[in-house]
Each structure stands twice: as structure tokens, then as C-alpha cells.
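SAMPLE LOG
Freezer: B-3
Tube label: C17
Construct: single chain, 371 aa
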Amino acid sequence: MDGFETRYAEAQRLARRERIRKAEERDRRDSRISDWDQAIFARQAAEQRLLVQQRLTQGYHQSGERQIGGRWRKDVHEMGLRSEGNPVLKYFVTLVPKGSRARASWDKAHLENQCPQKILTLDFPYIELNREFMAALRVDCDGIFLSPAACLAALMEQVRDGRVPCLPHIIVGDLLDDGRYSRPHFVWLLPPGSAVWRSDDKRCRSKPIQLFDAVARGLAAALLDLGADPAAPTMTGRMKCPTSPFWHTITPNDGIWPTLSEYTDYVDTSAGRAVLVRRAAAAQSGLGLTVSNAIFDTLRTEGQRLLAEWHFGADARMRGSRGALADHLHEVLAEYAEKSGHEDKTVSYVTAKVADYLVAHFDPVKLRARP
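STRUCTURE (predicted):
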């Protein structure tokens, strides 16, 4: 017993020494922060508090013009917070990391830590949810509906047909000046406390992560006729922000919250992304699967050749975001399709799917170096 007590006392002594060392290191670090730096930090904190107060009392005001979602916006003004009195959006807000850990942006490709105040971050048009604990199944839709009501009616039909278990909890898209509803995101939220843990920790289980990805693909597969994009990544947590004044948001479902296993009773979780992209190209182009597949294969081969050529040639088109690269590839493939005799407008749907799919899955490591 005496030996145990001696080892315990030694452990306490070492722990005290470590605490003292960390305290001294902290003091030295704090001493290096000048009064000037402290004044700057204090002023920045005061400015953030003022911005929050103005946001709460005066609403959101856009200054100048900004290009968001492919079109210019100006004079955007919205009073209050969308999450007030809305249980779905309140829950959504909890899925966004706190403070300066939240990442948002004016475009979907370059998300960054914008400010330390979460309430201000939630006004940005694009946002990223907690990527370690995933609780939002997002389906990108490339369709344009006559109105938000028409979009909701189309989704209701899918629910009645049993293709999806319920309406999305959130629908967020661009309400155009002519009343049409463009390229919405459909978001299904898992029940509170049911988020899927995704981590490098050895205790993290891979099967729930795989199921999350499969269910997201299954939801996209069920909505191909509405313009769902199966090539979109499923686990990035990035999406149009439903609390942003720049989008039109609907929360049609606050009562049905299926678990991942309950989704599998409705959606097909077995189809791979490559198969779904082909099916989407066929459905959204109206060309039929046989014709669409033939064009898809031709464009895919040419697209793979172009990406390899641009990569090894250090082409400037490879230096931007994946979204910009997809636009460049789409443009060149469209010209190639036209020269190959595929100038029909419906072929552009196939071209877009091929470009998006190739860029989303482009991995330079897998390319063979030129001899």
C-alpha cells in the first residue's frame, strides 16, 4: 500500500509541475500581447457586438450589388431572423458550428470563417454544417419550377407515390423575378440526437457513414425526374443557407422525422453514383437511356482526355475551384458535342452531367504520368 501511495504522490507532483509549466507558458504568451493588440481586439469585439445589435433591430441590408447563384442581387432587405418561431430552422441553426468555427461564403466553392458572430454568418448565402456530426441529407436539384408552390406540389406527388417517406424539412432555392423557383436544395434532417459521427477516431464506425451516403444517393435517385443531381457530394455539409435573405425558404415538414434506417424502407440505397448520373442524364434530357448512354460515353472519354491534358499541361483552367473547372469543361464539351453532330439542345443536359461528374471525381493522383 505504501508503494501505491508513493506512486500516487509522485503522479500528483508531476501533474502539479505540468500545471505550473502551462500557467507560466500562458503568462509569457499573454505578456507578449501588447496594449496596442489588446486595444485592437477590444475594438473588433465592440464592432461585432454593434453589428449584431444592428442586425437584430434594423434587419439585414445589402450594400451595393453582388453576384450570387449566377445572377446579380441588389437592395436585399429583410427584418427579423427566419429561425424565430420556426422549429425546423431553429434546429438547423444548431447544426452550424459555433462562433468563428462556422464557415460560409458568397459562393458555393470558397467557404471560410467569415466572422466570430454566428448570427451574422447565417446571413451568408452558402454555409457549411458540422462535418463531424452529420444530420442533414441534402439533394441538389437542377430543375426550375413555375413557382415555389409548383415545386412543393411536385414533391408531394413523390411522397404520395411512396418514393420518399416525407417532404423535405427544408426547401431553399432562388425565387426569380418572374416568379419561377430555380435550383432548390431539398434538405431532410435527421431527428435530434441522431447525427452520424464521422471522424478519424478509431472508435468511429464506418457503417453509419456508408448508410448516410447511400440514403442521400437514394433520395436523389427517387427525385431524378424533378432534376435531382446525383453527382453532387453527399457529405460536405455545404448548401444554400435557408436563413439567408438571398434565398426563398420553405419548411413544409415539422412533424415527420425518419431515422436513416426508416429511409431505407423507401429509397434505393444500392445504386452507385455513376449509374445514377447516367439515369439522370437520360431522364432530364428526354433522350432515353440507350441514346443518352451512347452520348454519355463519348463525352466522358473526351472529358477524361481533356482533364488529363489540362493537368499535365499546367493549364490555367486547373487552378480555380472545381465549380469553375466544371464550367470550363462543360463549355469545351458542348463545342465538341456540336462538332460531333450532337447539337440538339437536349444534349446539353447530358453534357452538364458528364462535366459535373468528371470534375467531382477528378483525382490527379490516379492519372498516369506521360511517358
